[in-house]
Amino acid sequence: MLSEADILTALRDCFDPEVKLNLVDLGLIYSVSTGPDENSKPAWPRQWVKVTMTLTSPQCPASGLIFEQVHNRLAGIPDISKVDVDLVWEPKWTPHRISAAGRRQLGI
User: Fold this and answer.
1) DSSP secondary structure code for residue 86 in this structure
2) What pTM does this model have?
């Protein structure tokens, strides 16, 4: 079974094209939920994943690309049968959500 940490590691391959920082360190990923998918085909133990995330602003021109990256990255993992990406606006994203590693990478 994949853990939340495994999912976050995979999502570090997804970047905001404007900021050039991965979505996890940028603070756009708010939560990850997983669970067994008894209805998956093929029948080996697979799981569903739900990612709750936001964007830096509602007018983000790269929103479609970002969602596609998240979905495709997780859908490409053989143990995952279903991916749901949920966009939320509360709490609002602020630069304070950027991780320490992200701040170093951005030079702030």
Assistant:
1) E
2) 0.91
